Predict the 3D structure of the following.
Amino acid sequence: MKYTLHQFEIFLKIAELQSVTKASEALYLTQPAVSIQLKNFQDQFKIPLFEVVSRRIYITEFGKEVAKAAKKIMDEVEAIDYKALSYQGELAGKLKISIVSTAKYVMPYFISDFITKNRGIDLVMDVTNKAEVVRALENNEVDFALVSTIPKKLKISRIELMENKLYMVGGRDYKYKGKFLSKTEFQKLPLIYREHGSATRLAMEKFIDSKKISTYKTMELTSNEALKQAIISGLGYSIMPLIGIKNAIKIGDLQIIPVKGLPIITNWNLIWLSSKNMSTIAKSLIEHINKNKGFVINKHFDWLKDY
């Protein structure tokens, strides 16, 4: 039997995604190329690695065992690559960061130069809601998290990056009267919320409760981008972080509706467990951000001062 690393990589990806098509897309290969390698790999075994039922691929029990072995092999190969770079004096390894969905407009700017200068670092950045971010951090699945509200139950260390402002926003067709939106008018608006577990939703709910506002109709969407598009289409209104709607406001698709007590102002914080044994990569990133955060804010986020 003559297995190749390429075959291990392809079969492992197929087993993970349960699809030849998705595996080919993930590996940036053509589907025929993946299918040929899968056939060549299967031909080396007398026992089926997979079954195709109604055009769907299912990994057999034996195939799952082979996939586990392939994972170990590919991890070892990856470790060798990292060690080779380390011996050359370069930072090498994985950097895992979990961020809340709105933070995708923030985090890349603070780490792009660091990742670019250190080619041996593989970045894994998971974009999800606050509840999942906190869970990943608590379970030590990631090195860092970026959040706008600090989890109270965890002992964490942090770097405060910049302000996060949340405003009431509506589509271009909304016409409000007076200097501020009245409580009566507020209560007439169909509101759109983020999903449960979202920090944006929590901030919005706290504000509405503090003002004792009764809402007659609510909707829920599971991403900031979907929420933005819903408001642009005229489906409803929401309290949203300014960071993710800059262009929509600039071209007039969205407008900020003045409301007393808004904006809600929090801060973006890069956090990590205080008890975590930090890797050399993690320590270097902390040093990089502390040194360069002022420059990054002035270069990429100076426009926030206008609001």
In short: The mean pLDDT is 90. The two ends are 66 Å apart (CA to CA).
